[in-house]
Fold each of these.
Amino acid sequence: MRDLERSVRVLLVLDDRALANTIDLTLRHGGYIRRSEETVGAARVAIAEWKPHLLLLDIDLDAGAAIQLIDDARAGGPMGIIALTRRSDLRGKLDAFERGADDYIGVPFVPDDLVARARAVLRRTHGKVGELVPRLRIGDLEIDVLNRKVLAGEHELHLTSLEQALLYLLAANAGSVLTREQILDALWGTDFVIESNVVDRHVRALRAKLQNDWHRPRYIETVPGSGYRFVPGDGTKANGPV
């Protein structure tokens, strides 16, 4: 219990499991204790009983009713609040800020941007940000969020922001098939005008950097007729810091 009280607790409220997994993996760079809820009711209980230091909230959840959780969080004492949304309209931003949100992040997001914003909000609201964990190990890959690079064995790979986001999305959902539509929505957003091969092109580019032969996939497996699945090199899911 004493360790829990000394640690930074982060509550994520989001019903998109693939995206929630991606945010959870990204937040491991903060060394936080993380908890995820999918409904407004469960989140309200968690806010009251668990008393998180930071709340990441999808304000579009439950047809927009989730934005009321900002009021609940503010009534419960000091808590950093980051609003998440897929919308780009000014009304949603203004409503979130007027209710007391500390920051606002649109989906899709860049992993290193989320890490920086979470730390900034925690610093403003609590004066503590937790330990920065620059590198995470995923199977036999090592991701360095500070330098936006990946170590694959002895090879050091530098990624673009989109390649970084794609790797986090796939790795956070290791073992699960992500459809092209899910990947498109997570990385480009719902308003993106679909190009038939945009997902495939970016997967091929990431595979090339990872030196991943699609005939014998070591990291990214093609599931015919469905999409892609991440297979960590050592057969495990995402591990902790290194």
Note: Confidence is low (pLDDT under 50) at residues 1-5.
Amino acid sequence: MVAEVNTSKQVFKNLSKLELEKHILKNKEGELTSTGAILVTTGTFTGRSPDDKFFVKDNLTQNTIDWGGFNHPISESFFDGLLEKMLTFASDKVLYVRDMYACASENHRLKLRIYSETAYHNYFAANMFIQPSEVELQYFEAEYLILHLPSFLANPIVDGTKNANFSIFNLSKKIILVGGTAYTGEIKKGIFSVYNYFFPQKSVLTLHASATKNQAGDTALFIGLSGTGKTTLSSDPTRILIGDDELLWDENGVFNIEGGCYAKTINLSKKNEPLIWNAIKEGALIENCTFKTNTNEVDYTDISLSQNTRVSYKLSHIPQVAIPSEGKHPNYIIFLTADAFGVLPPIAKLTHSQAVDFFLIGYTAKLAGTEMGVKEPKSTFSPCFGAPFMPLKSEVYAKLFKEKIEKYKPEIWLINTGWTGGGFGEGKRIEIPTTRSFVNDILTNKLTKSEFIIDENFGFEIPVTNLSEGNEIIIPKKTWKNQAAFDSKAKELALKFKEIIKKFSV
């Protein structure tokens, strides 16, 4: 059982959305928009800070966590000291408390208690997790506690952190401490990290992925890093939404870990992303956007505060959602990559062997703003498409992935949502309607009888017939003005793929 935080002067527990909105507006934490959503700013931190994330190294974790990379160790004594300091700091403050569930599957459900210094973080938690019933709340016993104090700053010299901001996980005590940052995404990714530690050790695969299904129940997974299109492509009026970012896959099928969506809003338009556009209404929480001059209408083109502008909303804001948020074993798996080199095909079919390799490579571009310090798209390799959130060795997740696809035999595809006609700065981003068309062709089995050619650099199968649109960009080399430059860049990336995959053994 987690420790209780009961030292604060006043505690507001599980307030309604209306009550929370009153607190947000009264305390000037946010402003009301023309659609009825609340607009807030998160200050210095408008993205995750994975280098400031720590796990307590103790008897539970010392031989299980893959130390290094994003998995920084911290001693239990430093953790205990920070917890004591945070409790003292909060003793004369108002705290907002939210009891919620994580995961649509009752077999894998975690009971969460989130203490937050500000009302809008409580609001975010209400959007992103699953609300217990009134009866369940009467008997609710939290298993995991998150204490989130954005205005509390660590002293790196005495507290064992790298900077004043931090996220620290004590997996033995089931407590997460977040301080010095108001970025709401640290809360949701904190719980995802907990799932990524415990559940693969129970042979349950955790995935940084979205999922949809059709009326017949045929299920599709979209696996990718933030900004590659998971939320956009799963928000499809012809499909039923299961979840947009974090999933479990067990022997019964796939399950959403969350109860809401956290969509990027940069250059959001009603034409290209109508479901997300219409979801931004009363109950939604918009982050780091601005208003159009002399109005309370949000300007989604303004990136003066951040390129990682976001909105959170409950799943119920989408017209067609799965209740509960679950699906069958996937019929289709689609890897999403935003190729900043501009050499990967916009659509390709993968063998199961290629799929395991690509899962391990985790190639994409980190898009601006999703992590602090990323100012423009940057090619990156994030094993299992979620290295910042995955405490175990990459092979643990990849082995489970391999077992699942060998057993359930989904079709596996690659969709490049990145650049065509050249890399970043020279080519252009593949348009959302074109990508949607490729995805629709896959999910409606339109490409079953297509003719395919083999990509000479990567070995993927590229469909060249039966496409609804996008034929002019289907062969990447043909979109480049400088063919020699394409060959050089494609060979460079293919060689990098081979070098990285040699590091793993599955």
Note: The domain at 10-27+48-202 is CATH 3.40.449.10 (Phosphoenolpyruvate Carboxykinase; domain 1).
Amino acid sequence: MSTPLIKIIEVGPRDGLQNEKNIWTVEERIQLINLLTPCGFEEIEVGSFVSPIWVPQMANTALVFQSIIKSDHCRYSTLVPNQKGTELALTHNVRNISIFTAASEAFNKKNINCTIEESFERFKPIMVEAKQKNMRVRGYVSCAIECPYSGPILPEKVAEVAEQLWQLGCAEISLGDTIGKGTPETTRAMINTVKTRVPVDNLAIHCHDTYGRAIDNIEAAIENGVFIVDSAITGLGGCPYGGDNAKGNVATELVLAFLNRKNLYHTLNADAIKTARQFVLNR
């Protein structure tokens, strides 16, 4: 049996920066992504085509996307909340987009002001256009372990939402421990349930390190066949559900150290990651 390649998706420039209270300039965002490109990621999330009124951190994503120096060895994606966002992505020649929903009705209503079912109604025209224009779509499922408003989430509910995204045509589905309350046991139970409905090769794990369990949970996911891992350089973003100083996305450098410690196969460049990390810390 060959050693699996662990693919890393860098979400710092989008999922990380959108939760930073100190807003980064367009120039800083471009420089960050240009430093992340040589790091060996499978994909870098560049930004989000959301209204700058609601998410000012993601203003001018089109300019950022147009200005970065792209590599043929990396995908560059943007998140789109609706069909208007998809049209903006197409206008600026974005070929990889992400959509998001949750496994929690309470979270969806507070986060995007609609039910889970209504979020899928929004996705349908996006997926039609994406298929017509040959765009790759990644789906996010928030609250795959627990919700800040309604508590623990049943694995069966996560599997149901993930399967709907898969049937719509998402190439990859990222399962998010949004508030970082997962454990290896709950992560394992969730993954094992979801992979009965969605091919495990098309699943990713998105862990928050709020309570210091992200690496343990990533290890549990990998042990159960998930070889795509989301991370953010320096753990950018914090966690809006864990207090002012709570950790958010798991830090890319912690994931790299874990992969090396376990002798797992990856394409990350330690020197480039160190350079990108220093840029963020010195900003």
Note: The longest strand covers residues 96-102.
